[in-house]
Amino acid sequence: MRRKFIVGNWKMNGSRDSIHEAKGIAEAAKNYPSVDVALCPPFTLVAGFAFALPEFSIGGQDCHVKPSGAFTGSVSAAMLADARAKLVIVGHSERREGLGETNDEIKAKCEAALTEGLRVIVCVGEPLSVREEGKAIDYVLAQVAGSLPYALLKDPSQVAIAYEPIWAIGTGLTPSSDDIAAMHGAIRAALGDAGEVMAILYGGSVNGDNASEILHLPDVDGALVGGASLTADKFVPIIAAAAC
Ligand SMILES: O=C(CO)COP(=O)(O)O
Fold first, then answer.
1. Tens digit of pLDDT for each residue in 79-111?
2. Which residue in the list 21, 92, 101, 105 is annotated as catalytic?
3. Which of 5, 19, 123, 182 has its CA 20 to 30 A from that of 204?
4. Which atom of ligand 1 approaches the CA of 89 most closely?
5. Where does substrate bind (predicted)?
6. Active site annotation includes 64
7. Which stretch of DSSP H or E encloses residue 179?
8. Rounded to two decimals, what is the model's pTM?
9. Strand, coil or helix: what is 225?
């Protein structure tokens, strides 16, 4: 049985004062012991949050493939681990589309993170044009096949896939329940044995109103939440929905 996994991606939001929200979320999460909860704030807040909340899971939103070196502006998986991060998101569409990250780079980031003992969330998802052409499943399965470091998957429970249709991110739009279930089922089938333990999360406009329905669809093991993860009052109901 896979545990539900609810992850907040704060993207480029938050300040040191936001520790109050993070503490509220971490405190409330203790009421839902059946759910794994994590928050991924911007790099500047990772160490502060992780040291203030040592029992809670704090993660990064990206990592470099190398442990150190002349890579101005980058942060390595080793640095995240040193900052007491427990996980990292890789391959978010805002980096794939916005910065041109490729499957090969994302796979290398995944390997770097696993090597440092971080749990990894690998994001995949189709643009609207691909969905409208009826090719969303093929597109996403190609991303899964290209981004996962199969050779390093000794413990597939250390990897989660987040299916985030690009057109659903920050728009208030979500795919139909049937479409989410079909995509998650296709990903599960493609993962083979690893799919027994690997969590498959849904992301894209998840909120307190739609979380319960989405989280109880077949093959949906949790959610990667953007806007609705920034405050405890919006995020905690999503955690609660995962526990029911
Ligand atoms: O991109 C997302 C999480 O990584 C989803 O963002 P929203 O929940 O704001 O749509």
1. 999 999 999 999 999 999 989 999 999 999 999
2. 92
3. 19
4. 4
5. 9-11, 170, 205, 226-227
6. no
7. helix 177-191
8. 0.97
9. strand
